[in-house]
Specification:
This protein is mainly α and about 325 residues long. The chain is about 85% helix and about 0% strand. A two-stranded antiparallel sheet has the order 1-2.
Length: about 325
């Protein structure tokens, strides 16, 4: 399989994972504003906040390879992108599994009428999920795939000239990887204003929610634009200009998405915790993590790539 196709396959697999996380992210944001949430034990509410932080971390990890591909590699198909996409997807499984277990524990405790039975059922399911995702893979790794892994490692520094059509497909796939996170959040943002819990929020938090809604709406608009331009301007034909504009819009959409995600996370944390310092620390930590994954790390990778290119040119002289 050509390297460009391998990169696209890796991105598609990442999209599958984030589609699964999308459901939990939407639930996690909305649950804090449901009528029965205030009746939950404080421990259950705190675990719900932890689950939200874990899910946003998982989403950040899953989106990071797309940002790296655009920013650090300039959209080029490289062995490094293929390897890093797989590693980040694997890293996202642990916070995803733990968050899934927390959500199941809260909901099953209400379903079965007891915290212990809910915890047992949720714990068993979480162990099963993590065992299937990671344990089974670790066991199979001992017996299969050594040749394929060695080949991927050998191709780490490879850069492949990919046809324009394939590069456009990769760019559109990356937009589709990012879009589910924005969709999950925007659905919550539109519905929350109709809940009675929203009426109890201070005006400052309502304004913060409005700002977060505008940020996520802007992100959605930016992510949809490349596909719209492809149809309207170029009638679905391939164009270097489309690739350039689409790639930049996809990267630009990440900043308002990070701001919107963490602003509304602040809203949820403020509903759960009385300590303003804790709420600010959690929200700021998540924002810094997302910015580091989506911008800091890719920009450092681009700087490293440029330094290697300059060193190669100097050596050639």
């Amino acid at each position: 399989m050509a390297l460009g196709q391998k990169v696209k396959t890796a991105l598609n697999e990442t999209r599958t994972l984030i589609l699964g996380a999308q459901i939990l992210i939407g639930f996690q944001y909305q649950s804090a504003f449901q009528p029965r949430f205030d009746g939950l034990p404080s421990g259950a509410q705190a675990r719900s906040a932890v689950a939200l932080a874990l899910l946003l971390t998982a989403a950040g990890l899953l989106i990071a390879p797309s940002a790296f591909h655009r920013i650090a590699e300039g959209g080029a198909s490289t062995g490094r992108v293929q390897i890093l996409t797989g590693r980040f997807a694997a890293a996202a499984l642990l916070p995803f599994a733990v968050a899934l277990g927390i959500d199941l524990q809260v909901t099953l405790a209400l379903t079965f009428g007891g915290a212990r039975s809910g915890a047992v059922a949720a714990g068993a399911f979480t162990a099963t999920a993590f065992g299937v995702w990671c344990g089974w893979g670790a066991w199979m790794r001992r017996h299969w795939g050594a040749g394929e892994r060695a080949k991927a490692t050998a191709e780490r520094d490879n850069r492949e000239a990919v046809p324009l059509q394939a590069r456009i497909e990769q760019m559109l796939t990356e937009a589709r990887v990012i879009l589910p996170g924005a969709q999950a959040l925007m659905g919550f943002q539109l519905v929350i204003v109709l809940t009675s819990a929203f009426d109890t929020l201070p005006q400052s938090l309502r304004l913060l929610h409005g700002a977060a809604l505008l940020c996520v709406a802007l992100s959605v608009v930016l992510l949809i634009t490349p596909a719209a331009l492809h149809r309207i301007v170029w009638a679905g034909e391939d164009s270097e200009t489309l690739l350039l504009i689409g790639g930049r819009l996809t990267v630009a959409a990440l900043l308002p998405l990070a701001l919107g995600m963490t602003a509304d996370a602040y809203l949820v944390f403020a509903r759960i915790f009385d300590s303003t310092g804790l709420v600010v620390a959690l929200s700021a930590g998540l924002l810094l993590l997302l910015l580091a994954l989506w911008f800091g790390w890719p920009l450092a990778g681009r700087k490293h790539r440029d330094a290697l290119s300059e060193a190669g040119l100097s050596g050639a002289k």
